[in-house]
Every structure is written in structure tokens, then in C-alpha cells.
Amino acid sequence: MDETSETRQAALAYVESLENRDWPRLTTLLADDVVYEMPQTRERIRGRPAFLRFNTDYPGDWHLRVRRLLADGRAAALWLDVVVGADALEACVWLDVDEHGLISRITDHWPEPYEPPPGREHLVERWSA
Amino acid sequence: MDETSETRQAALAYVESLENRDWPRLTTLLADDVVYEMPQTRERIRGRPAFLRFNTDYPGDWHLRVRRLLADGRAAALWLDVVVGADALEACVWLDVDEHGLISRITDHWPEPYEPPPGREHLVERWSA
């Protein structure tokens, strides 16, 4: 299996194990020194134990579905549909996989809905929430 | 050149032509019926003329720098550092390239900074803005 295929498989397994709360499987996918970052809040979590704890503790009934998965060498990008309780949002997740096929870096972007600025109504259509 | 390489080249040229305000070059990269979407505001722009107008009219002194570019077949994902005046933010851009190598679909996510929820301080470190 080439690098890109290995990365694609790791990225899919990452989402599946989170969605299934399969913490033993998630553990096997992660490098010991995995780094997780959330640029919007400038938060960083270092190491597999802390990252697992962050996920097992995460509040709410959240669910993940892959809308898009791109793999390119040792990097992957995921566009996820996320449902948390009654709220739906999209997430963009960037993964790096190390030479052992383990996920070594995870970056989550959580773009939240907002109202469009005025002045471009003549160019756009809007779809329903 | 294979599909993935063609897509990578189109994605890079897309960012370069936007950054350089090179509208003739940007025009050559886009399919006639390109669709541009901003899921956070649920806005959609259809067609090359409207999309060009959206960009030429976009207010502010904005600049784009590619932090990451992943290409995978006819799809690309870009993680951009965006500077608008004094503000810095990150964007996630998803591109589809058609069988002629032209960009047929563009989706922009604009994740904005926010304050982290309480309760996870023991797991995270924060970096400076």
C-alpha cells in the first residue's frame, strides 16, 4: 500500500473510531506524541493520553460523517458533517501521518454559521438552514 | 501530467491569481458554470462572471498565503493564511476540477476565533494571538 493509501485508511479509521467511541481502536491509530490543535481558540493538546481524555470527556451527543476525504502523501484533509444534539455544523480536519502510519498531528477548524455582510445580495442565492 | 498533479497546479494558480488580482489569469482557470459556496452563510454564487465580480468587489486589503495544499484526483483542499487589513485568520477551501482541468466548484470555510469553553484547561495549553 502506498503512502497516500495508508494515510487515507488512517483518516477513515480515525473518524470511524471517534464516531463509534472505539477508544482502543483510536489509541492504536495515534502516535504517542500526537499533537492536537484548534487554531480558533489557540488551544493545543500534547500526547495520546490527554487527547484521548479530551475526546472521552467531550460533552454532548456528537456524531461525525465524512463528506470529503482527501489524502496526499502523509497528509489528509477531512470535511465532516458534525451533529451535536440538535445542532449541525461542518468541520475541516487536517491530519499528518508519520512514517509508521500513525497520526501525529491533528488540526480542527470549526467554522460556525454567521449572517452574510450586506452588499452582495445581487450576486448570491441562499439556501435554507 | 496526472489528474492529481493537474489539480494541484490549478489550485496553486487559483490562489496566486487571487493574491495578484490577476483577473485574466483567474478567468482562464474557471469553468463557465463554476459554483462557489460559503456554507457558513449558506450563500451560493453561480457562474464565472458573478464569481469574478464577487472577487473584484470584495472589500478590504486582503492577502492569501498557502499553508497547506492537498490534491487527490480531481479535488483539492487548501489551508490558507488570510490577512484582511490588520486581521489574520485561516480559511479552508475545497476545490473540484473538471475533466478539462478547470475549477468547477469552490467551497470556502472561514473559521473565526472564539473563546474556548471552560472545563478543559487541565488538558490544553494556549498559544498567543
Automatic annotation (TrEMBL), chains A, B:
Transmembrane segments: none
Domain SnoaL-like, chain residue ranges per copy: 13-105
Protein name: Nuclear transport factor 2 family protein
Native source organism of the sequence: Paractinoplanes hotanensis
Lineage: Bacteria, Bacillati, Actinomycetota, Actinomycetes, Micromonosporales
